[in-house]
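[DERIVE STRUCTURE TOKENS]
===
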Amino acid sequence: MTRLFIIKDGSVMPDIPCGEVSVKSYPTNAGLIWFGIDSTAIENRGYPLDVGLEKIVKIWNMNQLSFFFENSTDTVALLCEIL
């Protein structure tokens, strides 16, 4: 099963087992979004995701992800393979 999550600044990641996750920055965003796996994302640490770009990662639980938004009104979409 696949599930879509919409993530905003300050979102808490749910405790949901998963496999492959597509992390996509909205094309209307104004800044970079940094995301971390098994570590807290902060500016200049983690994976940078520019406006409209996508990264696919393999993780075992959604709560492994963390995000830092340069612009607090930006959004990320997560398309997750739920196990």
The two ends are 7 Å apart (CA to CA). Strands lie at 2-8, 18-25, 33-37, 47-49, 54-58, 65-69, 75-82. The domain at 2-82 is CATH 2.60.120.770 (Jelly Rolls).
